[in-house]
C-alpha cells in the first residue's frame, strides 16, 4: 500500500551526475564552468548582513529581471527568474500541460524532461534524432500529429553539442500547434562567429519560451538560478500563479544580479572554454576518439572498438581521479561526454587517456 499517486509510484527519479567530495578529483562530468564566477559575487557575499534575511525577499526578483531586460534588450515583463533552469521547466509543464496531454522531445535529450513529464502525469512523445544528430525535417509534422501541447528542444543540443540556427527554430515554432521551449542552457559557449540569437523569436511569436541558466555560463551551478524569456502573455501565469510565492532567496537574487552585471568577466570565461574546447577536440581526435563538433562546454566522443569499451574507459578514468559522464543507453553506450575543464585538468585527462589506450 502506497500513498503516492500512481504516476509517482511508477516513475524513476532523475539521476544526478556524481558530485565527489575529494577536491583533487578532475571533475568533467556535469558541465560546470571550470572558471570561477565574477569577483562582483565576492563583494555581494561580503556585504550580506544577517539582518537582511529578517524580511522576505523581493517576490518577483525585479532587480534581476531588469538586469536581464537590459542585457537582452527586452522588457521586464518578458522575464521570470527561477530556481535554476530546472524550476522553469517545471513551471512551464505545470502551467501549460494538463495531465494526460503530450510533451514532445527528441531522443536523446536532457534526461530531466521525461522525469518532469511523469510528475505531471503527462505523456512523452519522442522523435529520434537523425544519424548526424540533427532534428529530422518532419519533426513538427510528427509532433503535431501526436497532439503535443509542448515541445522541448535543447539548443545547443545535449549531449551532442550540435546547434540548430535561430531561423530553423523560427520555422519550427511557426509550424507547431503547441508551445516550443528552447532550452539554451549552453548558449553562452556558441562561437561568436555564429550569428545565433533566438530572443528575436520571443519578440515575434507567442508560442516560444527560452530557458537560460546561470549554472553554466556564469559559473554558478551551486547558486540555483535561471530564467525564462517569453512574451508577457506566457510569462504572466507562471510569475503570478504557479510560481512559489518566494521562489528565490534574497542572497541568490543579489548574487545573480551582480553576475549578470559583470558580463565582461563571464564572456572571458566563455572564450577560455571555447579555446580549450578547440584544443581538446584536436587532441582527443589525435588519440583516436571520434569527437563531434560542439557549440557547448562539453564534447561527445565515441570510443572506437579497437581502443576499448567506453564504459571501461570511463571506469579507468574514474580510478585515476577523473570523472567524465557515461550514459548506458542506446546511441550513447559507446561514447563519453566530457566537460571542458581548465587547461591543467584537460591535460590530466589527455595524459590518462593515452595511458589507457597504450595499455
Ligand atoms: C544545466 C541544464 C539546465 C538547467 O540547469 P540548472 O542548473 O537547473 O539551471 C537545463 N537544461 C540543460 C540541458 C542543462 O544541461
Describe this structure in words.
By secondary structure, the chain is α/β, with parallel strands linked by helices. It is 39% helix and 15% strand. Helix 5 links the parallel strand 3 (102-107) and strand 4. It contains 13 helices and twelve strands. It has a seven-stranded mixed β-sheet, with helices on both faces. A three-stranded antiparallel β-sheet has the order 9-10-12. Pyridoxal-5'-phosphate binds next to helix 4.
Show the helix and strand layout.
Elements (H helix, E strand, L loop, with lengths): L5 H4 L16 E2 L12 H8 L14 H11 L6 E4 L1 H13 L5 E6 L4 H8 L3 E6 L10 H7 L2 E7 L11 H10 L3 E5 L15 H6 L3 E6 L12 E5 L1 H11 L7 H12 L1 H24 L3 E2 L6 E5 L7 H10 L2 E2 L11 E5 L3 H16 L1
Parallel strand pairs: 1-11, 3-4, 3-5, 5-6, 6-7
Antiparallel strand pairs: 2-8, 7-8, 9-10, 10-12
Pyridoxal-5'-phosphate binds next to helix 4.
Characteristic key phrases:
359 residues; binds pyridoxal-5'-phosphate; 39% helix
The largest sheet has its strands arranged as 2-8-7-6-5-3-4
Portion of residues in beta strands equals 15-25%
Bound molecules: pyridoxal-5'-phosphate
Shape descriptor = globular
Count of individual helical segments: 13
Radius of gyration: 21 Å
**Which ranges are low-confidence, i.e. pLDDT below 50, for 5 or more consecutive residues?**
none
Order of helices and strands: HEHHEHEHEHEHEHEEHHHEEHEEH
What percentage of residues falls in helices of 4 or more residues? 25-40%
Structural class: alpha/beta
Distance between the termini: 53 Å
Beta strands, count: 12
The chain-level mean pLDDT equals 97
Q: What is the assembly state of the chains in this entry?
A: single chain
Largest sheet report: 7 strands, mixed
Amino acid at each position: 500500500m502506497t500513498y503516492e499517486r500512481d504516476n509517482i509510484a511508477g516513475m524513476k527519479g532523475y539521476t544526478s551526475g556524481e558530485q565527489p567530495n575529494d577536491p583533487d578529483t578532475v571533475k568533467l562530468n556535469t558541465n560546470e564552468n571550470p572558471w570561477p564566477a565574477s569577483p562582483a559575487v565576492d563583494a555581494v557575499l561580503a556585504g550580506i548582513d544577517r539582518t537582511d534575511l529578517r524580511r522576505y525577499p523581493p517576490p518577483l526578483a525585479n532587480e534581476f529581471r531588469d538586469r536581464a531586460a537590459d542585457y537582452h534588450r527586452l522588457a521586464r515583463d518578458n522575464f521570470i527568474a527561477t530556481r535554476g533552469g530546472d524550476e522553469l521547466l517545471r513551471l512551464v509543464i505545470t502551467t501549460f500541460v494538463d495531465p494526460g496531454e503530450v510533451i514532445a522531445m527528441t531522443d536523446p535529450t536532457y534526461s530531466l524532461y521525461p522525469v518532469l513529464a511523469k510528475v505531471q502525469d503527462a505523456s512523452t512523445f519522442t522523435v529520434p534524432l537523425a544519424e548526424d544528430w540533427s532534428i529530422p525535417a518532419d519533426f513538427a509534422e510528427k509532433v503535431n500529429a501526436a497532439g503535443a501541447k509542448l515541445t522541448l528542444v535543447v539548443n545547443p543540443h545535449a549531449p551532442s553539442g550540435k546547434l540548430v540556427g535561430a531561423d530553423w527554430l523560427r520555422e519550427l515554432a511557426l509550424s507547431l500547434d503547441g508551445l516550443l521551449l528552447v532550452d539554451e542552457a549552453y548558449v553562452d559557449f556558441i562561437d561568436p562567429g555564429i550569428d545565433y540569437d533566438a530572443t528575436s523569436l520571443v519578440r515575434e511569436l507567442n508560442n516560444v519560451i527560452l530557458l537560460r541558466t546561470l549554472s553554466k555560463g556564469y559559473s554558478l551551478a551551486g547558486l540555483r538560478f535561471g530564467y525564462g524569456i517569453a512574451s508577457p502573455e506566457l510569462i504572466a501565469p507562471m510569475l503570478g500563479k504557479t510560481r512559489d510565492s518566494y521562489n528565490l532567496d534574497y542572497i541568490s537574487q543579489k548574487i545573480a544580479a551582480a553576475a549578470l552585471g559583470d558580463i565582461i568577466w563571464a564572456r572571458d570565461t566563455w572564450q577560455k572554454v571555447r579555446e580549450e574546447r578547440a584544443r581538446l577536440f584536436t587532441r582527443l581526435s589525435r588519440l583516436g576518439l571520434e569527437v563531434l563538433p560542439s557549440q557547448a562546454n562539453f564534447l561527445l566522443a565515441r570510443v572506437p572498438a579497437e581502443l576499448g569499451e567506453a564504459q571501461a574507459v570511463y571506469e579507468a578514468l574514474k580510478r585515476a581521479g577523473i570523472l567524465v559522464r557515461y550514459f548506458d543507453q542506446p546511441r550513447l553506450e559507446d561514447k563519453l561526454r566530457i566537460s571542458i575543464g581548465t587547461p591543467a585538468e584537460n591535460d590530466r585527462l589527455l595524459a590518462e587517456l593515452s595511458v589507457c589506450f597504450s595499455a
